[in-house]
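Same chain as my last thread, 89 residues:
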Amino acid sequence: MQDMVAVDVQTMKTSAGADYFVRIRCGGRETTPFMFKERFKAAYEADHLSWVFGLRADEPDLMAYGPDTYPNETRPHPDRGCISARYDD
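reply #2:
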């Protein structure tokens, strides 16, 4: 059975606020090829890569991503050590 690819956004709190990392995972391997200061940019890139890898059917609309629709997080996710920029639960 082939390992599934997953793309998401992880957030790391910093003294200046937060950094948003796009993470690609497959099996036990992962990489974080991009880092952004703005959550909406990381969310778009994660959704774009999900489309590239065939994990979503529709190409994301760049104009749908902005600071109003994906504001920077200010609180930790209740169940994770780092906070997630996209809560799926």
